[in-house]
Amino acid sequence: MSRKQKQPENNTPDHSPEVKPVVPWRIVYSRQAQKDAQKLAAAGLKSKAKALLEVLAADPFTNPPQFEKLLGDLSGCYSRRINIQHRLVYEVFPAQHTIHVLRMWTHYE
Questions:
Q1: For 2-14, what is each residue's pLDDT tens digit?
Q2: Does the residue 11 lie in any domain?
Q3: pLDDT tens column, 55-84
Q4: The CATH number of the domain where 92 resides is what?
Q5: What DSSP element (H or E) covers 77?
Q6: CB-CB contact of 37 with 52 (8 Å)
Q7: What parts of the sequence cross the membrane (predicted)?
Q8: CA distances from 66 to 15, 31, 32, 38 (A)
Q9: If DSSP codes are grouped into helix, strand and coil, which group holds residue 89?
């Protein structure tokens, strides 16, 4: 007769990957962006801008909503549309986990 071997008890801790909480990005506003925020509120676009800022705080590279990498004077910056006329322009600093919002109004003025 064969003898059954007793299986050792598994007393080792679970080594599954640890789920880390998502730390929101810090958002810093330029003086111009602060002025633009007042214009957005007066134009009834505050809720749309706020929704975009919440997306940015979670992950500035989330797609959708679509973002564009800018060229020229704003090289290194990104933009997302608030509506057909207005856009949110921001710069990302990964080392500091910070987003610098430059503009939140039209780029046609």
A1: 566 665 555 555 5
A2: no
A3: 999 999 998 999 999 999 999 999 999 999
A4: 3.30.2310.20
A5: strand 77-81
A6: no
A7: none
A8: 37, 25, 23, 24
A9: strand
Range of the domain at 42: 26-103
Pair 101, 33: CB distance under 8 Å:
yes
User: What is the per-residue pLDDT for 106?
Assistant: 82
Residue identified by tokens 């549309």 is 81
Amino acid at 50: K
Task: Please give the Cα distance from 11 to 66 (Å, whole number).
Answer: 48
8 A C-beta contact, residue 36 and residue 48: no
Give domain status of residue 6, yes or no: no
Residue that has been written with the tokens 């809720």 in this structure:
47
- Cis-peptide into 8, omega within 30 deg: no
